[in-house]
Amino acid sequence: MVDEDKKSGTRFSRVFKKTSPNGKITTYLGKRDFIDRGDYVDMIDGMVLIDEEYVKENKKVTAHLLAAFRYGREDLDVLGLTFRKDLISETFQVFPQTEKAIARPLTRLQERLKRKLGPNAYPFWFEVAPKSASSVTLQPAPGDTGKPCGVDYELKTFVACTESGNSEKSKKSAITNTVRLAIRKLTYAPFEARPQPMVDVSKYFMMSSGLLHMEVSLDKEMYYHGESIAVNVHIQNNSNKTVKKLKICIIQVADICLFTTASYSCEVARIESNEGFPVGPGATLSKVFSVCPLLSNNKDKRGLALDGQLKHEDTNLASSTILDAKTSKESLGIVVQYRVKVRAVLGPLNGELFAELPFTLTHSKPPETPERTERAFSISDATNGSDPQDIDLIQLHEELELRDDDDLIFEDFARMRLHGNDSEDQPSPSANLPPSLL
């Protein structure tokens, strides 16, 4: 994640760091947002700094990547039955190193960290398959607590427990020897020359010789988060009825893919227009309407799909799921799609004429890797004096470009806060599925 010191003009890159409660192992990551670019996913690479005592005792240190779909409230987990489905589960032995790990070349980030941290720093790598499940969180109702529903990714680094059984001592040892990092897998849909969405609909009325015709089109098929959608509407009224007004809304459809597929729709943007109305018999209307789906206008809607919300961090509406013919929906957990719905209102007796158009909502293209420039390198978090309003974790930043020196500044890692939120210990919100699913 690249930032710039406004005073000195020096650019630097954030590297995230978190230490186990007993201080024996520390995990380093270059970023927490990993992008699915269609043909590959950003590699999850980092380093683990192991205490000298653990190295001498040859204690086994393992990294574990888990993508899980939680589809029920945490307080309903009883008798060992959890409302959770593991979608991706991979392990990597960090220490002692395997022959394969020793032979594998380090990434540029790992090389610099190795040089700075010393011989007790050991690398790990995870490669996630493209078009796999992406991070999605279902927005909670106000006041909900506990583990959120949705698909989340966790990177866990831990030391193998030498205590046998389920004693309190072994449980405490496992907790103090573990580092947990919440990360996100986001989707970027590469630009493709897709046809412009368009639909024609007509309505026939009894006692009327003509039809009410409506043509709806979008200016393009793919939109980026925060971008306005231009909806072009043309109405040709050849009937003897009158169109009184027009309603346009953006619908988010989340398919919950478990044993069966259940779909939940949520309206994320809406406009109503009386301008140019009524459209009487024989009249026409052509107009372009602009509508923009934003999370800021939907903060209180329970069950709304978000782009993998992390504790104390802002996010946005979930990106459209890029479906592949070879990928089963059950392996994705939640499939998100968007569509525009246009309704021409005629009145209580004559009903409505409506049309729907699907479109893709995604992240903008990640910046290309810039040319090498001299920049400082820091490992930091919101515990430093930076303005939290300058932090935007949902942006797809360019990959790390490191200098040839080892001028690293280490600062403890804690979760970034929402704008204006100063509490670091506030519990994370939970999101629950509609009761009909539980």
TrEMBL record:
Region (Disordered) residue spans: 419-438
The Arrestin C-terminal-like domain, residue ranges: 208-366
InterPro entries: Arrestin, Arrestin-like_C, Arrestin-like_N, Arrestin_C-like, Arrestin_CS, Arrestin_N, Ig_E-set
PROSITE patterns assigned to the protein according to its UniProt record, in alphabetical order: ARRESTINS (PS00295)
Compositionally skewed regions (Low complexity) per UniProt: 427-438
Family matches, as Pfam families: Arrestin_C, Arrestin_N
Organism superkingdom: Eukaryota
Gene Ontology annotations of biological process type: signal transduction
Transmembrane segments: none
Family the UniProt entry places it in: Belongs to the arrestin family.
Record's protein name: Arrestin C-terminal-like domain-containing protein
Species of provenance: Caenorhabditis briggsae
